[in-house]
Design goal:
The protein is mainly α and 185 residues long. It has 7 helices and 4 strands, in the order βααααααβαββ. The protein folds into 2 domains: 4-137, no CATH class; 141-178, no CATH class. Helices cover 48% and strands 9% of the residues. The strands form 2 sheets. The protein has a two-stranded parallel sheet. 15% of the residues are buried.
């Protein structure tokens, strides 16, 4: 989860060259693609001759990994479905159409076998094709300038300091997570 579902507001703004992280909401909880363990087990289940090769890899997983992975998938889909319904598609009157669009978005962005990687770039056209309400950041020069100014300030700060994460609100209150500094011996 780790904040990726924040990308489900009333409308999503995307820059032409931005790397979208919309698909990562369903991957991040256990730090591996959610459907990956299932895929590995099914791959072996269909051909037991592969068990010997895969045994060292499978030993890294706890016996409950498939159940835990499925719970995270179900929980994430529930959260995403609620947020899309209550935010982006709040005013949609046709409930059946609303459900179909939300189902398509969840399938396209949450299914690892469809999306292939949580770090995959998604164009504005692709986001619109799957039903997301997206506006190009470039459509508003003023907003784009402000967003890029903040982006560049953050990039300079993150690259020139020990800061790893910065969260700041409109009141100037900030939370800054810094990496531990290496000690010299």
């Amino acid at each position: 989860m780790q904040g990726k579902q924040v990308a489900l507001p009333l409308q999503y703004l995307s820059g032409e060259h931005s790397v979208d992280e919309l698909a990562s909401w369903l991957d991040k909880k256990l730090r591996f693609p959610m459907l990956d363990p299932k895929d590995k087990f099914n791959f072996i289940k269909n051909d037991n001759s592969k068990l010997f090769v895969w045994q060292p890899i499978l030993q890294k997983y706890s016996p409950t990994i498939l159940g835990e992975a499925q719970k995270v998938i179900d929980w994430s889909e529930t959260i995403v479905r609620e947020r899309l319904s209550q935010r982006m598609f709040k005013g949609t009157r046709d409930k059946a159409k609303k459900k179909l669009v939300i189902d398509k978005i969840i399938k396209e962005l949450g299914d690892h076998s469809v999306n292939l990687s949580h770090s995959r770039h998604l164009s504005i056209e692709k986001c619109k094709d799957i039903g997301l309400k997206v506006s190009a950041l470039e459509d508003s020069q003023d907003l784009q300038d402000k967003v890029l100014s903040v982006h560049h300030a953050m990039m300079h700060t993150l690259s020139a300091t020990a800061s790893m994460k910065i969260v700041e609100n409109q009141d100037g209150k900030a939370y800054i997570l810094q990496a531990p500094m290496p000690t010299q011996q």
